[in-house]
Amino acid sequence: MTGQEAAAPAADTPTGREVTGPTSMGTDPRRFWHLAWTLATTEFKLRFFGSVLGYFWQLMRPLLLFAVLYAVFVGILNTGGDQPMFGVALLLGIVVFQFFADSTITSIRSLMNRENLVRKIDFPRAAIPVSCVLQAIFNFGLNLIPVFIFLFAAGGSISVRWLELPLVLAMLIVFVTGLSLLLSALFVNFRDVEPIWEVVAQALFYGTPILYSLSVVIDKVSLTAAQIMLANPLAAAIQQLRHAIVDLSYQSPGQVFGSTAGDLIPIGISVLIFIVGALYFRRMAPLIAERL
Amino acid sequence: MPERMTSEPAVVVRDLSKTFFIPKEQISTLKERAIHPFRRSAQHEFAALRGVSFEVPKGGFFGIAGRNGSGKSTLLKCLAGIYGADSGTIHIDGQVSTFIELGVGFNPDLAARDNVALNAAMLGLSKRESRRRFDAVIDFAELQEFTELKLKNYSSGMMVRLAFAVMIEIDSDVLLIDEILAVGDAAFQQKCADEFAKIRKSNRTVLLVTHDMGAIQRFCDEAILLEHGRVVASGDPREVGDAYLDLNFSEAARERATDDEQEAEAGESLGDGRAVIEEVRFDLPENQAASVLPNGVRTSFAMRVRFTTDVKDPIFSVALHNPVGVALFTASSSPTGEPTGDFKAGDVVTWKASFDNILGPDRYTVTPWVMIDGGGLLALREKLTSVVVTRSSPTGALIDIPFEQELAHETPADPEQETIR
Predict the structure, then answer these.
(1) How large is the average pLDDT for residues A191-198?
(2) Tens-digit pLDDT profile for residues A108-152
(3) SS3 category, B342
(4) How many angstroms separate the CA atoms of B68 and B257, rounded?
(5) CB proximity under 8 Å: A 45-84 to B
(6) How far, in Å, CA of B85 to CA of A128, rounded?
(7) Does A16 touch chain B (CB under 8 A)?
(8) Which of B20, B55, B163, B390 could form a disulfide with B9 if both were Cys (CB 3.0 to 4.6 A apart)?
(9) How far apart are CA B410 and CA B392, in angstroms?
(10) Which of B235, B238, B191, B241 has its CA nearest to residue B60?
C-alpha cells in the first residue's frame, strides 16, 4: 500500500535528468579539466607550430621589455637602490607581471572569441577563461627559463628556499583565475571592461615593485606605503619570489608586515577575489549564450 | 515502428516557455551604467516559445518542424542546455549529443587529428574515449590518408565528411540534430541515410529539427509543428508535413494575392460588359473559399455572374494556368453544347464546376470568362486570382494522373531458379 502511494507521484515525475541550462563548471570535473586543457594546448600548439620562430618571439617580448626598462630605470635612474642582482629581480618581476596581464587581458574577450562554441554546444562555460589561464601558465613556464639563466649567470645558486616557488605560484594562480573569471563574465554585460582593465593593469604595473625595489619605497616613502602595496597579491608574489629565489636581501612580505601572519593579507585577498569571480561567473553562465 | 519503442519516455518537455528581452537602448558599458545607475532600459519582449509540451519515447525518431522564426531552434537550444528556459521543465533520460552545426569549433589551422580531439572534448568525451573514437571517425569519413593534413587544405566535401563522422561516432542515447542532412555528394548522403537507418534500429532517440518535410516523413515516427512558439500540429509525420505545407503556401498565397490584386487593377478585364464576373472561389469538402488546394481532393470551382442585359445561352468557362503560362486545366459549361438557358438583365447566377484535383503542386492563376457561341465575349477577367496546390510528397510532374500498376514476368519463371530460391 505504501509502495503504491510512493509510486503514484513518481509516475508523474519524468525520469531522467532535468535540463536547466548551461553551468560554469558542469557536473563532471574531469570533463571540465579535459576540456580546458585541450582548449589551452591546441591554442598553444597553434601559436608555436605556426612559425619556426614561435618560441623565439615568445621569449623576445619580455626580454626586449627587460632590456629597455633595465637601461632606463636601473642604468639611469638606479631604481634598484643598492640591492644585489636587481637585473634578475627586474626580469623576474616583468615575467610574473606578464603572466598576470596575459591571463587577465586575454580572458576578457575569450567568451566572445569562442562565441561560435558557446552558442552551439552545452559545455561548462568556465572552461574558456580557465583555458586562458592555463595558456598563460604555459607561457609563464617558458618565460621563467631565461630568468633562471640570468640568475645563474649573475651568480645565483639553487637553494632550499626554491621550494616556496610552487606555494607562491599557487596563490598567484588562484588570484589570476578569480580575476579572469570575473572579467570574462563582466564583459558579457559591459563591453568597455577591456579598455578599463588595460588601464588598471598599466597602473598595477607601476604600482607594483617591478621597476623599483621595495626597499626604495620603504626608504623614500614609508613602511605603510610598502605594506599597502603588498596587500596586492601580485606584488606580494613578486616580492616573495625575489626574496626566495634572487636574494635574501629582498624583504619578504612577512618581514615588511612584521610577522608571517601578514602573508595572510594577500592570500586572503586572492581567495576573496577567486570566490567573487567564481560566484559571479556562475550567475552569468546560463546567460552567456543569449547575451553575447 | 512501435515495437522498438518502449513506453518509457526519453525526453519529456512540459509547458516550456522562453522569452528573450531585447533592450531598446542597450546599456552595455560600465560608463553608461555609471552615468545612469538607476535607469531601467525599455525592453522589447520576444516570446520564442510559449508553453511547448511533448514527449519522445525511448528509441523514437522525432521531428520538430517549423518555419523560420517559429521557435524550433530555440527549442533545440533549450533541449541542448544552451539556453535556460523561463518556465516549464525538460527531462532527458540519457547522455545527450547536440549537433546544431556540422563541425562546430573546427579550426582550419589544425590537423584533422587535433580537431577531432578538440571536438570530442567539447562534446564531453574523456581523453581515452576520444582516442579510441578517432579511428572509427576517420574510417567513417574515409580520410585515413589525411589525418595530419590541416583542415584549411581539405576540400569542402572532406570537411563535411569529417564533421559528420565526428557527430555520428558519438555514443549517446539522445541525439539532437539541427538541419544538417542536405550536405555532401550523393554517395555521402546515402551513407548518412544508411547511418540514420542504423540509428533508427539501435535504441537511440533522435530529435531532428528541420524544414525539410521529406526528411521528417522519411525518418520520423512522430513530429510536431511549431508556429509562433506554439505547437500547432503533432503526431503523424505525414499530417504534420501537410500542415507545414499549408502554413507555408497559405502565406505565399496571401502575398501573391495582394500582388495580383494590384495587377488586376491595371490589368485585363475584357468583354463587352453584358455580364460582370463578381466573384470566383474554390470550395473543398470541408473548406469553403480555399486558397490552398491539396492535391487529390475533390474540388469545386464557383463563379458568380451578374448579367446587365438579357442573354441567351451563355457559356461559362475557367482556365488554370501555371506560372509559365501553360493552361493545365480548362472547364466549360458547354462541352456538349447543351444550352444554359435565358437570363434577364440583373440576374445573378453561380456556376459550379467540380473536378478531382490532379494538378502538381504549384501556384495557378485563375482566368474565368463568359461568352456566347458565335455571339462574342461577355466578360473575361484574366488572372483574376490565384490558388496554390499542395502535395505532401511532390512527384515533380505537372499533373498527377491517377494510375494502377502491375508487375508481370515477361519470360516464364525458370524452374531451376525457383528451386535455388
Answers:
(1) 91
(2) 999 999 888 888 888 899 999 999 999 999 999 988 988 999 899
(3) strand
(4) 22
(5) 45-46, 50
(6) 23
(7) yes
(8) B55
(9) 35
(10) B235
pLDDT digits (tens, 9 = 90+) for B330-364: 888 876 667 788 888 888 999 999 998 888 887 88
| pTM of structure | 0.72
- Measured between beta carbons, the chain A residues lying within 8 angstroms of B81 are 19-22, 122
Q: Residues near B279 by Cβ (< 8 Å), separated by ≥ 6?
A: B303, B304
Across the interface, of B20, B80, B123, the residue whose CB is closest to A290 is B20
CA distance B48 to B55: 19
A183-to-A186, A194, B284 alpha-carbon distances in Å: 5, 8, 63
* Cβ neighbours of B330 (radius 10 Å): 13
- Output A18-21 pairs: Cβ under 8 A, ≥24 positions apart: A18/B89, A18/B90, A18/B91, A19/B78, A19/B79, A19/B80, A19/B81, A19/B90, A19/B91, A19/B92, A19/B96, A20/A286, A20/B81, A20/B84, A20/B85, A20/B90, A21/A286, A21/B78, A21/B81, A21/B82, A21/B83, A21/B84, A21/B85
Mention every residue, 6+ apart, whose C-beta is less than 8 A from residue B214. Answer: B393
Query: What are the chain B neighbours of A22 within 8 Å (beta carbons)?
Result: 81-82, 84
| Lowest pLDDT segment from A211-215, B216-220, B305-309 | B216-220
Find out whether A266 and A257 touch, Cβ atoms under 8 Å.
no
* Residues in chain B within 8 Å Cβ distance of A185: none
The residue ranking higher by pLDDT, A287 or B44, is: A287
Each residue of B181-224: pLDDT tens digit? 555 566 666 666 676 677 777 778 889 888 777 778 777 889 99
List of domains in chain B: 2-246 (3.40.50.300), 268-390 (2.70.50.60)
* B98 contacts chain A (CB < 8 A): yes
A114: chain B residues, CB-CB within 8 Å:
105
Pull the grid cell for residue A209: 615593485
Residue B118 burial (CB count, 10 A): 23
Least CB-CB distance to B84: which of A20, A46, A123?
A: A20
Structure-block grid coordinates of residue A278? 567564481
Q: Encode pLDDT of B138-179 as tens digits.
A: 888 888 888 888 888 888 778 777 877 777 766 678 888 886
Q: Are A88 and B87 in contact (CB under 8 A)?
A: no
